[in-house]
Amino acid sequence: MDTKKYLNKDISSLINWLSNSDILNKEPKHIAHSVNNGYNWIKHKYSYVYNEITGYAISTYIYLYKVYDEPKYLNLAKQISTYLLSIQDKNPNSKTVGAFFYAFQQPNLEQSNLYYCFDNFIIIQGLIDLYEVTEDRNLLDAAQITADFVLSMSHTINDGSYWARYDKNNDKFDFPTAKFSGDRGILHGKMAIAMLKLWNITKKEKYKRGAIEALDFALTLQESDGSFWANINKKYVFSHAQCYVCEGLAYAYYVLKDEKYLTAIKKSLNFFLRNMRSDGSLLHIYKDQILWRNFIFSIFPYSALDATAQYIRLVIFLSKIENDAKIIDKYLLDNSVNFLLTNQIKQPQNKNINGALWHKVSKRAGITIKSPIISTWVSQFGLQALIEYEKCKCSDETKENNLIIENLY
User: Fold this and answer.
1) pLDDT tens per residue, range 273-326
2) What is the DSSP letter of 254?
3) Which of 71, 77, 301, 384 shows the smallest number of beta carbons within 10 Å?
4) Of residues 90, 98, 231, 111, the one with CA closest to residue 169
């Protein structure tokens, strides 16, 4: 298979930003091969070391390795895993044994005392994706003790929901906010990918059960119009998080073949299709019950590149699962892809930003507003979306052309 057909100048510059800019840390030694949250284009500096995004980076490079068969991507994934394993809590007497803290924070690279549930299962997926290629037992062992920490964050209500974070300074699981990242949110449904991958390898039922329970809870927050409330507070629909839970549902459907998962995904995608902007983008927020924010966004509505990239991936996933290429046109992917490419940064003289995707953009009455942080995960998701879209344009449907099914991250 000629994989170079899936490589164009837009994809190449995106890969270059993720691999060769200082978004990937080289020093000091204790953070070498970690990944930054993003780049502040107004202040001209990189933001903090973000361990969740570092986990995503492993999955991203393993995906690139499988697509392009270039060892440099596998080597990058290995280097990043070495960093992550070096910071994993290995104290058997610690409440956070197996876990990864949130970040090394600026200005002095201070270690955070917060441990997020979401961050940790994203890292699990990265470790497992690398394990499936290398069969390095250390990766599997590390992933399992992290998974046990994640499962310990199950909410005391026992309804499949999760505490969002553990605060080590205050020794408590508690983040009762209306924000999408708070307790009992739909974003935890994405853990199904990591947990089912672990279950498939270890056959330990607790991982499968954790995945199913997290998804069952998330489904209680889906409305008849297909939208998902961000969390139990039901204050707004956050496109990024809605895509997260759909990613968990997609992988769970692929593994478990439960039709209710597929039905929920279709309802969700149809909600997005009905509410998509004319340029193919998804809004950052829908159905906002927070009045002051709703007023501001009514004047300057923000389109979200992360959610739009996720939408593209989910539609392609659905087209592969259903073996129906017409789905690509039904969900107007040409428009959505064009939106991503229109908002890819093309400043070759500036390696700090060239090739990356903006995070959020708002255009009204000739005024364009862009979010100050160029967030790394947006480009990670966008990269997979653009590569998979290129594959859809090729007629030779091969096993490798279906990588999105097993390698959604």
Assistant:
1) 999 999 999 999 999 999 888 888 888 899 999 999 999 999 999 999 999 999
2) H
3) 71
4) 111
Helix ranges, 154-258 (H): 191-202, 205-219, 239-256
Instruction: Say if CB 9 and CB 19 are below 8 A apart.
Output: no
Alpha-carbon span 207 to 201, nearest angstrom = 10
| 132 close to 158: Cβ distance less than 8 angstroms | no
Amino acid, res. 107: P
CA 280 to chain centre: 20
Please name the residues in contact with 355: beta carbons below 8 A apart, sequence gap of 6 or more. 12, 13, 14, 15, 16, 17, 344, 345, 346, 379
Dihedral over alpha carbons 85, 99, 58, 347 (to 10 degrees)? -110
The alpha-carbon radius of gyration of the chain (Å, integer) is 20
What tokens appear for 279 in the block? 């340029």
Contact 390, 5 (CB under 8 A): yes
